[in-house]
Amino acid sequence: MTPKEVLALCRQEEIQAVDLRFMDFPGTQKHFTVPVKALTEKSFEDGFGFDASSMPGWQAINESDMLVVPQAETAVVDPFMKATLGITCNIEDPITREDYA
User: Where residue 58 falls among pLDDT bands split at 50, 70, 90?
Assistant: First the structure.
């Protein structure tokens, strides 16, 4: 699925929220939700910023800004949450844009 197809799916299914999902180091799925209007084609390149300092094993507070970058091919309408699209994201360093692992 392409970013354009994801956005079309959101319109077709009347999606209201996008659940951005990613894994922490022990393998537990983490997530946060944004309104569907925040999801644009550019979001699939630029990602969404978040503070990773509260997650064990991640960055210190002074270098905790990270990006979650949605992966269009993982988008799925969540069957358990009303009008919600779930999408798996990669974590990237916002400066180097390297995957954070």
Answer: low
79, part of any domain:
yes
- What's 61's domain CATH number? 3.10.20.70
The whole model's pTM is what?
0.88
Question: Which residue segment(s) compose the domain that 26 sits in?
Answer: 3-92
Structure-token pair, residue 20: 């951005």
Number of H helices, E strands in the chain: 2, 6
> H-helix or E-strand containing 3?
helix 3-12
Cβ–Cβ under 8 Å, residues 67 and 3:
no
Q: What is the band of 101 on the pLDDT scale with cuts at 50, 70, 90?
A: low
Q: Tokens in use for 92?
A: 């990237």
